Amino acid sequence: MTDRSIRTLDATEIRSAHTLFRASLHAAPLTDERWQRARRTYQDGRTLGAFENDTLVGTARAIDTTLTVPGGTVPMAAVTGVGVRADRTRRGVLTDLMTAQLADCAERGVPVAGLHASEAVIYGRYGYGIAAHVRSRRLDRRRAEVRASAPADGEVELYDLDAALELLPDVYARLARSRAGMLDRTEHFWPMWEGHYRTESGLMRLAVHHGSDGPDGYASYRVVTEDVADDVAVMYVEDMAAATPAAYADLWRALLRVDLITRIESRWQPVDAPLEALLTDYRAVSTMSVEDDLWLRLVDVPAALNARGYAGDDAVVFEVSDPILKHNSGRYRLSAAGSEPTTEPAQLALDVDTLGMLYLGGWRVADLAAVGRIEVTAAGADDDALGAAHRLVVTDSSPWCGSFF
Ligand SMILES: CC(C)(COP(=O)(O)OP(=O)(O)OC[C@H]1O[C@@H](n2cnc3c(N)ncnc32)[C@H](O)[C@@H]1OP(=O)(O)O)[C@@H](O)C(=O)NCCC(=O)NCCS
After folding, report:
1. Which of 38, 170, 188, 253 is the most exposed place for a label (fewest CB within 10 A)?
2. pLDDT for 254-286, tens place per residue?
3. Considering the domain boundaries, does residue 376 fall inside one?
């Protein structure tokens, strides 16, 4: 019989866990040089290993960070490095890892966990829901031009990768509160960012917008020449954020000005970034995809709910079910004052993964009810509880994470 246990790995075991994780993604082990960098993405004491008869068969880890939420912030465990050996899958290893990791977050008082999912069918069962989306677009560089009426304020300067690593952490830190869903990129995030640009093809550049109040926007890109004979060079803009409309417009002016580029792919940006409206020719840009971005799991429902703000005069009573962290299950009354446990009858009922979807205001509450994710009780239907809930949680701009981990 298999004897399985989950425990926190010590420093000597981290590299084998990383190798196992990479193998689960069909990637080869890292060279010593690349491991030196990858090692810096590991936070001490946050890597779990699953052992069967003393053999490591699965792993999952987390990085402590802070999540920007509507009207505030909340501590978050950024979950990553999840993998199970291909000869040990579908026998509950991940379930044991996820259960242990959530229990650890609860014990440490971390109210929210978040992740990016390799497949959308994995994490709902552990209470994670899609809280934010990303949009990727393609631009025909020769047709794309910023409208003359778009604001301008400042200069854009280009930096190479080494300079970017010096400069960008401070620039990013000034922007991390500008949209719900963004994270603090702690010291453990930057080696991942660096690893991407050290290993992907093409020359990397960081464009920083220096506005009248200092750096207030950036875009990092790499240019790959796909077909020299046909003059096809693609600029991949993979990390971009702007605190002001002028910074956004100026960055696009600068990107479109770079010579010898045929196409620009603007990847993983906020769904509502107004790029089409910024350009003289709306059809110079087209959406390639809208995909799930950040998945959130409320580990401590009342603490998480009270970390964000709510709009309006409505109040709604809802019942949450959480089969894994049972202390979350119960009825809550939500209003502009926050959430409190209640014994009043529920108007809405939902599972904790659906609450995670609603947490940053990125979904219409009625849409989630329409697909059966939220049940409306008779009392809730009479009181238009869906409308009330929507007015409470909805936000002006689309939530967006924009940080890779
Ligand atoms: C995804 C992964 C970690 C799942 O590990 P696992 O140990 O097989 O998961 P479990 O056995 O605990 O699965 C629990 C349940 O989820 C289901 N499930 C897990 N992964 C699934 C997947 N990729 N597709 C469909 N169902 C999946 C299982 O069928 C099982 O369902 P059940 O409870 O109804 O029987 C593993 O398949 C893996 O390492 N995949 C490659 C790497 C990867 O994608 N990592 C995630 C990075 S975000």
Report:
1. 170
2. 999 999 999 999 999 999 999 999 999 999 999
3. yes
CATH number where 151 lies: 3.40.630.30
Range of the domain at 341: 304-393
304 in contact with ligand 1, CB cutoff 6 A: no
Q: What letter represents residue 70's amino acid?
A: P
- Can you give the pLDDT at residue 1? 63
The 10s digit of each residue's pLDDT in 133-188 is: 999 999 999 999 999 999 999 999 999 999 999 999 999 999 999 999 999 999 99
Whether residue 96 contacts residue 132, with contact meaning beta carbons closer than 8 Å, is answered with: no
Q: 116 CA distance to ligand 1 centroid (A)?
A: 14
**Nearest one of 13, 24, 65, 48 to 405, comparing CA atoms:** 65
Number of domains within the chain: 3
Which is it for the CA torsion 179, 182, 187, 192, positive or negative? negative
Substitution candidate for ligand 1 out of 20, 25, 84 with most atoms within 8 A of CB = 84
Q: Can you tell me which residue has the tokens 């509160």?
A: 177
**185 and 158 co-located in one domain:** yes
Rounded Cα distance, 15 and 100, in Å: 21
Residues 161 and 222: beta-carbon distance below 8 Å: no
Is the beta carbon of 195 within 6 A of some atom in ligand 1?
no
Asked whether residue 128 is domain-assigned, the answer is no
pLDDT, one tens digit per residue, over 209-234 is 999 999 999 999 999 998 878 889 99
* Pairwise CA distance, residues 38 & 191, whole Å: 7
Same-domain pairing of 283 and 140: yes
Give the largest CA-CA distance in the chain.
71
